[in-house]
Design a protein that fits this description.
single chain; Quinone Oxidoreductase, Chain A, domain 1; Rossmann fold; seven-stranded mixed sheet; six-stranded parallel sheet; globular
């Protein structure tokens, strides 16, 4: 089969011929319907060797959905043809965090090294993907894998972040979403579905601000020198109870500190590598700044419920496996509307 693999650090991935894996005891083979292309993949490609505890080569794609092709010995409750989303972070499955399905903070992550399929182990940018344990599957129901794949990260990550801040999001509050890309356009919808808060979206691209308004943003702000003042005015001078920063560079983090309200929360979802010198007075009193990471398998099931009831919808552009490089190029150039999804099986 064909697989889009990272072969060398700081070099473009390659489309290679690899063997179709056979599921062993407890494992499940997935026929991939969709694999989301995530901006964090670009950082993985560009980091030098030794920064990440991953062995090369491995197949990219950590945001996956498809159909069960075959199951290994001991797997029960799943049948060939079942449509599933793959929970992305793969922990040990035994520690306290993993037993609550929050494998993102697995207590044995340092021993495991690889973070999951597409992150050190073979992911979904191939015709088939081997999932090491059935606990990592969540039923899709009538959702199609080609469109549902981004829900496993682009929706799950902001969903987890919003849940952490839910007590703050009462009527009369505002949420600022910075960056209306794959995660940001889902974040706007999730805030609308989960809270009574006003949603404000900010981006440098007018087309992405238009998308934000289409999916539920009540106000939009063009990124620039006047953005902080505009956001303050839109929030009645109070600032935002929650800032969902889907970019995370120096400029956006500096803005986060200016526009979050006292007692509010900043969630740094984007991994652009920005920093914030934190001293007394940098942020309003009682405001917090957090790096949320993905979410739990239970939360993924909740996200899928929101999608099944039509409360959220991923805007996707489909690319065949042979055009995976083009999808990433367009992502670098900021020319995607929503999320790019690679479809290895058409």
């Amino acid at each position: 089969m064909k697989a889009y693999q990272l072969v060398e650090w700081q070099q473009p991935p390659e489309l290679r011929d690899v063997e179709v894996p056979e599921p062993g005891p407890g494992e499940v083979l997935i026929k991939v319907g969709g694999a989301g292309a995530c901006h964090s993949d670009l950082h993985v490609m560009e980091w030098p060797g030794g920064v990440l505890p991953y062995e090369l080569p491995f197949t990219l794609g950590h945001e996956n959905a498809g159909w069960i092709e075959a199951v290994g010995a001991g797997v029960t409750g799943w049948d060939p043809g079942d449509a599933v989303a793959v929970y992305g972070p793969w922990g040990c499955g035994r520690c306290r965090a993993c037993r609550t399905t929050l494998e993102t903070i697995c207590e044995r992550s340092a021993e495991i090294g690889a973070a999951g399929g597409g992150l050190g182990r073979d992911g979904g940018m191939a015709e088939y993907m081997l999932v090491p344990a059935a606990r990592l599957l969540v039923a899709l129901g009538d959702l199609h894998p080609r469109d549902a794949a981004p829900l496993s990260d682009a929706a799950l990550t902001p969903y987890h972040a919003i849940k952490l801040a839910l007590p703050k999001l009462v009527p009369g509050t505002s949420v600022l979403v910075i960056g209306v890309g794959g995660l940001g356009h889902m974040a706007v919808q999730l805030v609308r579905a989960m809270t009574p808060a006003q949603v404000i979206a900010m981006d440098v691209d007018p087309a992405k601000l238009e998308l934000a308004r289409e999916v539920g943003a009540m106000a939009t702000v063009h990124s620039g020198e006047t953005a902080a003042a505009e956001i303050r005015e839109l929030t009645g001078g109070r600032g935002s109870a929650l800032v969902l920063d889907c970019v995370g560079n120096d400029a956006t983090i500096a803005l986060d500190a200016k526009v979050v309200q006292a007692g509010g929360a900043v969630m740094l979802i984007g991994v652009a590598g920005g920093t914030l010198p934190l001293t007394f007075g940098t942020m309003p009193f009682d405001a917090s700044i957090t790096y949320p990471y993905w979410g739990s398998a239970i939360e993924l099931a909740e996200v899928l419920d929101l999608a099944r009831t039509g409360q959220i919808h991923a805007h996707v552009e489909h690319f065949p496996l042979e055009q995976a490089a083009e999808a990433y190029d367009r992502m670098r150039q900021g020319r995607l509307r929503g999320r790019a999804v690679i479809t290895p099986n058409g």
